[in-house]
User: Fold this.
Amino acid sequence: MRFFLLVLLLADVASAQELLPSKMPYRDLPAFCLCRPDSDVANENSFYAFTDSLGLLPEFRQGRGTVRLQLVVDSAGDAQAISYMSKALRAQVDAIAAYLVNFHRWNRTAFSAFTVVVQVDWNRGEIRWNFQPPDLAFFKTRLYDAPKPVIENKLFSYPGNPRKRYNVTVRDKQNDGLSDDYGTSVAVDRQGFVWEGTTGGVSRLHDDQVRTYLPPEEVFVGALVADKTGNKWMTDFKKLYLYDDKVWTVFDSSVTGLSWVRSIVPIADGRVMVAGYGGVATYDKGTWTTKRLPDNNVYFAAPDSKGRLWVGTSGGTAVIGHDSIFLSPSIIDGMTEDAEGNCWFATSDGLAEYSVTGHWLLRTAQNSGMPSGHVNHVLYNPHDNSLWMSIQHVGVCRWDILNDWLVITRENSPFPSTEATGLALDQEGNVWCATHEGLVEVSAVK
Assistant:
């Protein structure tokens, strides 16, 4: 079987540009000076040598882009990335943030802590950077005055009050004991327990009782899933963590073959499929099998009910199976399948569908009722034959796969954030959303 990939320069993925400021996950911040220190924030030679190695990473060898990161540096010289604005893929933002946080040669000043803004530009592996003075408006916009929902679709009329149809219940750290308000992912296990990955650990919710679990290493939890046997899987991008309700098991790149883990998908019989830089790895009863692809920079991978493997890479999307190839320029970040076997995909270009008849259709804010084009997650609810989507800079959206579009935002409901970072479905058909401002349950009004 021949395999072809449509190669796209990262700079050409225009819809992957962050047009609004976004928060980064961070822990409690020290009191700091919102000003540029009198002395240089870092030794220029050391910083140049450090950041120049970014150009060796696969994310930066093709195309060009810009990331503007704001960091807080404490008295020990340790940094946290707290916000960003970019014209880049999120994986590139994460890579740059990781590099800057791991740079431990920030110059100490008279201030106990200070903030600094670093702009990084690249063009086909050539890296340029410069420091910029922090701006008070820049800071407030990113951390306190979250942007209002951005509804790009000006032609579609949405119902004004979703609370007539859905209850929106918010749980947070202060009132409910979550490990942190900044959620990154959410899953429901076979017992009905709700698990949320956060920047402060993992929270488990059952009967309104919250319990916090901490992996054996202090990590920022990225993807989190529950497999068919009840095991919980999570990643900090570099390693995988398996929790069987008793023992933690850690898998690193020497075992998985992946140096950067981006997605985890549970499949049949307790197996899981993991995608990242290095290809696609599958775990089955203690054994890892890694599949190499022509483009090993993989963002997402999952099989459908027909045995086809869908793969989203930096070069586009491909499906492998039954000696057939299908290509799309959109990079898939998530996938779900409805009762009829239609496959639906979350992409930065919109909601993509590959129908049972073999047709590909991309729905956007210009040709459908979608409020905006960037879909981060998609979830099929068999209880009412609907699709739920998290829409970047909006909130969540429900569609009955016919004509009924419903948008739930912080302006028309108690939904607390414009950023939903994960979706999961429980046994009763309730939708759970991880957000930047707490864990949200959306349930139908009865």
Summary: The helical segments are 44-52, 90-101, 136-143, 173-176, 253-256. The first helix runs from residue 44 to 52. The chain has two domains: 10-143, 162-444.
